[in-house]
Amino acid sequence: MLRMLESREGIKIGMEVRFAELWDGDGDGEELLNSGAIAVWDEEAEEEGIVYFDVLEPDEDILKTLVRVTSV
Fold this sequence. Notes:
- There is one protein chain.
- By secondary structure, this protein is mainly beta.
- Helix content is 10%, strand content 36%.
- The protein has one domain (8-71).
- It contains one helix and four strands; from the N terminus they run βαβββ.
- The model has no long low-confidence stretch (mean pLDDT 85).
């Protein structure tokens, strides 16, 4: 089962995760995946932050695509 990273504090540069762990299902997943960036809510700061990533292993099911976080 995939976990959902619900705030930026759980996301670290260099970590490898499935796209489903970053994406909350809002918006166009393909577009977000291709952009290499996604907004993630930061509970502590009560604001959105941008997480940048590189695609490591594409998958036909975008939720299973492996990405590496490059910037938070």
